[in-house]
Each structure stands twice: as structure tokens, then as C-alpha cells.
Amino acid sequence: MTEAGREVVLTRAGLDQLLGVLAQSYRVVGPTLRDQAIVYDDIEGVDDLPAGWTDEHEGGHYRVHRRDDAALFGYVVGPHSWKRFLHPPAQRLWRAERDGEGNLEMRAEPGPDRPFAFVGVRPCDLQAIRVQDRVFLEGAYIDPHYRDRRAGAFMLAVNCGEAGGTCFCVSMQTGPRAERGFDLALTELDPGGDHRFLIEVGSGRGAEVLAGVAQRPAREEDRAAARAVSERTAAHMGREMPEVHMQDLLMNNLEHPRWDDVAERCLTCGNCTMVCPTCFCTQTEEELDLTGETAGRNRTWTSCFTLDFSYIHGGSVRRSAKSRYRQWMTHKLATWHDQFGTSGCVGCGRCITWCPVGIDITEEVRAIRDDQPPA
Predict the structure, then answer these.
(1) DSSP code string of 235-291
(2) HSE-up of residue 18 (Cα within 13 Å, Cβ side)
(3) The model's pTM
(4) Which among 124, 132, 161, 310 could bridge 318 via Cys, Cβ 3.0 to 4.6 Å?
(5) What is the pLDDT of residues 232-259, one digit of tens each?
């Protein structure tokens, strides 16, 4: 077997050792429990992981509670995605200061001191990162700030052992098992008994990191157990996206009465865009101190649900909640294909969970599909 695809087994102590090896070269970021949510933040070892905690998801509902075992990755996804590290919610783009002769000297914002190591990346979020790579790195214009943060990032993926009430990654072909885009992929096995972790090597860099960690070769029973975890998770998805040609369905139904129905419920709060791992809309603001000695430009996340987002001379193009929700959903599922050759949705379900009124993107697609005349 080649190095990529090789599988080994680690104990909890071995996983802690792996995180320590990563910390020698990377800024290690992973899941941790804080403020009654599982979020991504800097971690030092397995003691920072949300051991024995899980989360429950439904439309407009999120709670964490104790499990009956010591699983380290026994949750689904929280309100954070890896977007907040690669495409931060607030980013200084450049700064200018006057030199001794009164001239403004431009200074680009430096990139991070160390590359990131992301621990616990779910397969749907791996796909989300690939989607944002297309947006920021593969078009005619490359975003240097995203490029600097993305460069050298190490991906330790986690194959899902739980399906949340709003998950539909199987429908989007993005999970629950990671197939590519990782350096190492982990499947947590038997957290209530012989607690261990099956690790699959996905890159030469992953093999190098793993080389210094206590391990044993994977046995067939380990592989069978890992397959069973993925199969069980795939069979218990909380949602399902209808099988339909999205571009044709949505773009041919821009005046469907369902848009009026969703507009009556939508608060246009933008929560769905903030938690979405692929949404990338921003606004820029200039800053200038009162003395005129310094100036700068900052970029912050914004949302297509705000009136100001579509403002041009004379007012907002999308004045109604109907038009703004329609813009978001048709872009996410239909015109994103035209721009980037892929869907903008990865089936993580965050937009459903964190919608205050529980609007369900899969339900909206199904309602429009079911109202179509027979072929």
C-alpha cells in the first residue's frame, strides 16, 4: 500500500501526542466547549476537546448535553466554521502612516506567523473549504489575505459518527466520510469501551507528522468498525435535499408563491449567511484618525439579507424580504454552479439550526419541486 491510504490506530494518549507534534509547527485549532456551544478555538491537547459532550440540532434549536461515553468527537457541527480563520469576520486589509517627511507609507497587513492545523474538520466542511478555495484562489483575482491564511494549512479530518437533526450531507455528496482534501482522517471507535482512533493517511505531510506518534497497524476489525460508523451515520441523516436539477427548478420559478410564504417568516437577520461555511460577502470601510497621520481599510462580513448590501444610487435593489431570501437561495443552489462550477451548499445544516424561525432550505426546495406539473 502506498503511504497515502495507509491506516493505523492510535489510543487517546497517541492522539494527544499527535496534537503535540502538530503544535511544534502549527497553530492548532480544534473543537472545544465554551458558552454552552461547541466552537473552534486554539487547543493544546485532548484535554481541550469536548470529551463526553454532544449537540442536538433542529430548526431554530441547538443544545449541548452530556453523552454516556467519553467520545472526543461525538458532536456534529457548532455555530463556527473554519471560515472564521481563513476568511475572518473582521480583517484589516492595509494601513498607511505618514513618514518623517509627511508622505503616506502604505503597509500591507501581514499574514499569520504560523500555518494553521485544523483538528476535527468534518467532511462537509472540507468541501466548504474547497468551495472557498475556488472563490478566493482560482479565479481571475486572488485574495492575498485568504491565500496567506490558507497556505500550508494542515487538515486533520474527522469522519462523522453522529448525524444531526439538520444534516443532509449525503444528499450533497459531501459526507459523512472524508474522501479527499485531508492530510489525516480520523474515525473515532468504541468511545464507551476500547476507545481508539483509526487514522487514514491522506498526504506525505500527514505521514511525516504521524511518524513520530505511538501507533499500531490497523486490523481488519478496525476497518470494519470504521465502515460501520460511516454507514450508520449516513443512514440517519436528519434532512434530505430533493434530487432535482437545481438551476432549472429555481431559475424557472422565480415568481413561485412559495417565495411569498417564506418571506412572511423570514426575519432577514442574516444568521444563515453568518454560520454558512461558504458564504463570502463582505463590505469595506475606510478609517482615518483625526490628525491625518494614519489611515486604513478594513473588511468585515456582511449579508445579502441586508438592505445596504444591494444599495446603489437611488436605493436598494432588493427591498423586500422575498427578494433577499430568493437571492440567497438561488445563488447558493443554482447560480453558484454558473460562477464556480459547484453548489454553494455542503449540507451541514447550520442555516436551518441557527435560523430563529426554523426556515429549512430543503423544505423550500421540496415545496417548489412538488408543485411542478407532471413531466
Answers:
(1) TT-S-----S-HHHHHHT-TT-THHHHHHHH-----HHHHH-SS---EEEEEEE-TT
(2) 32
(3) 0.94
(4) 310
(5) 999 999 999 999 999 999 999 999 999 9
